[in-house]
Design a protein that fits this description.
Helix content: 55-70%
Distance between the termini: 74 Å
Order of helices and strands: HHHHHEEHEE
Largest sheet: 4 strands, antiparallel
Strand order of the largest sheet: 1-2-4-3
Shape: elongated
Strand content: 15-25%
Number of strands: 4
CATH architecture of one domain: 2-Layer Sandwich
CATH class of one domain: Alpha Beta
Length: 199
Amino acid sequence: MGVRVRRETKLIRVYSDLVAKLNEISNREGVPFMEYVNSALEQVVRAHRLGRSIKEVVDSYERMLIQREAGLVMAPLEALNKIVERFYPGEGDLLEGIWREAGVWYGKYLSIKIRDGEPLEVFRDMLKDSGWGIREINLERRGDRKLLKCFSLTLSLENTRLLMNFIEGVMEALGYKVLERNCLRGVIEIEFRDESNKK
């Protein structure tokens, strides 16, 4: 039988409303309050070891749930590249239309699902986690306009075009009008303006 080591404890100051919420959760889950709080703090330390804040970890998990609920699936990029290489030469317009339509649907889904925060910024963060190998993604504000820039080392030209159409569909559904678009292999630049408040 193992010997249980008694760990030293310390008092810390916590906002009373937060204590009440944590107590309510620990009671609901049937876990002693001190054990529940210590477990939560251990996860903060674990996230820090991964080079992330606990907020980043929870936000990433929330985005993953949204993607799963929306029906997005993980697929090997190499397999997708081969399919696109095979069909793009003869069916490029059709494929781009399908991706744009999927983007419109996804943008409408995000506008309903995202209650806290700006849907476009949440979408930008989702693109980072998408598996498309996007190394950099920036959303710049220029007065009433915005400029979205994506950069990937792994995207083929065809997949870059498909992704650009998907992004444009999302923007359209979120109430933005595309003003200018540029696309090179692995590079997307889209300038757009918010039209949602205009009649």
